[in-house]
Design goal:
single chain, mainly alpha
Length: 287
C-alpha cells in the first residue's frame, strides 16, 4: 500500500471509530442515568448531516479567517494520524499538534464574534494552563525509555513490558488529559452548557461538519497514543477492545460527576499533574 492510500485509510478509520465511540459514550451515559439514549451511530449521522445542510455565517464573523480556522482544525488532526499510526513518529510532534489545536480552538471562538465563542476562547487558553503540565508525561516517558519515537517505545515495551506497570502515575496523567477532551467531561470548560456549544456555537453547515470530523479523529488519536505508549504493540482487536473500555470508563465518570467551574477544573488537573510528576520521579528513583 502506498503512502497516500495508507494515510486515507487511517484517517477514515480514525473518523469512523472515533464517531462510534462518541456515540457509545452517549449511550452508556444515558443507560447509567436511566434514559434510553440515542443510537450509537448518532454522532456519525450528525456529522454527515451537516454536510448537506445550508451553511450560514454570522455578520460579526472575521471573514475569511472564520472559514479557514475550522478547516485548519481538521487538517491538524489529520496530521496527527500521519505522525501516529502511519509513520509512528515522535511524541514531540504529537504534542506540537495538540498545542496547535489549542490555538485553533481559541481562534475559532474569537473569529465568530459571538460572546459565547469569545468566552470559550478565553477558557481554551485557561485550560492550557492545566493541560501543558499533564503533557509533562512526555518527560517521564523519555526518562524511562530514553526515546520519544513511538516505534522505539513500542520496541522497548516488547522487551521490558508495558509502561503502564512501570510508570502508572504517568499513565494516569495522560488518562486525565483524555478525560478533559471528552464531551460532557467535568473538565470540559470550553464547551460547557453555560456557554451553549462554546467556540462551535456559531458554526453551521459544512464548517460544523469539519469541526465534528476533527473531534472524532482527535478522540481516536488520544486513545491510540495512550494504548500504544503505555500498553505497547496491539493488534486490531486489542486496539478496539482498549478504546471501547476506556470510552465506557470515561462515560461512567462523566455520567456521575458535575461540570466543574473553570477555576476548580484547572486546579484539579494541576493537582493530578503534580502527583503524577512527583510520584513518577520518586518511583523511578526507588526502582
Amino acid at each position: 500500500m502506498n503512502l497516500m492510500a495508507n494515510i486515507l485509510l487511517n484517517v477514515l478509520i480514525a473518523f469512523l471509530i472515533g464517531s462510534l465511540l462518541f456515540g457509545l459514550q452517549r449511550k452508556v451515559m444515558a443507560r447509567i442515568q436511566t434514559r434510553p439514549g440515542p443510537p450509537i451511530i448518532q454522532h456519525l449521522l450528525h456529522t454527515l448531516k451537516f454536510f448537506i445542510k445550508e451553511s450560514s455565517f454570522p455578520y460579526t464573523a472575521a471573514m475569511p479567517f472564520y472559514i479557514a480556522i475550522a478547516s485548519m482544525l481538521c487538517a491538524i488532526w489529520v496530521s496527527a494520524v500521519i505522525v501516529g499510526p502511519v509513520i509512528e513518529g515522535s511524541l514531540l510532534l504529537f504534542f506540537g499538534i495538540y498545542a496547535l489545536q489549542k490555538i485553533v480552538e481559541h481562534n475559532a471562538g474569537s473569529s465568530s464574534g459571538s460572546p459565547y465563542g469569545k468566552l470559550s476562547c478565553v477558557r481554551a487558553v485557561f485550560s492550557a494552563a492545566a493541560e501543558v503540565p499533564l503533557f509533562a508525561v512526555l518527560v517521564i516517558i523519555y526518562l524511562q525509555t530514553q526515546t520519544m519515537v513511538i516505534s522505539d517505545i513500542i520496541n522497548y515495551q516488547a522487551v521490558n513490558g508495558p509502561l503502564i506497570f512501570t510508570i502508572p502515575l504517568a499513565a494516569l496523567m495522560f488518562f486525565v488529559l483524555i478525560l478533559s477532551k471528552s464531551p460532557y467531561s467535568p473538565f470540559a470548560i470550553t464547551k460547557g452548557k453555560d456557554i451553549v456549544s462554546g467556540y462551535e456555537t456559531e458554526h453551521f453547515g459544512v464548517l460544523r461538519g469539519y469541526l465534528m470530523i476533527s473531534e472524532s479523529i482527535a478522540w481516536y488519536m488520544l486513545l491510540w497514543v495512550f494504548l500504544t505508549v503505555f500498553i505497547g504493540p496491539l493488534g486490531i482487536l486489542g486496539y478496539l477492545v482498549g478504546m471501547v473500555a476506556i470510552s465506557v470508563l470515561i462515560a461512567f465518570i462523566n455520567s456521575i460527576t458535575p461540570l466543574l467551574n473553570p477555576n476548580h477544573s484547572i486546579m484539579v488537573q494541576i493537582t493530578f499533574a503534580f502527583i503524577g510528576i512527583v510520584g513518577s520521579l520518586v518511583l523511578m528513583l526507588v526502582m
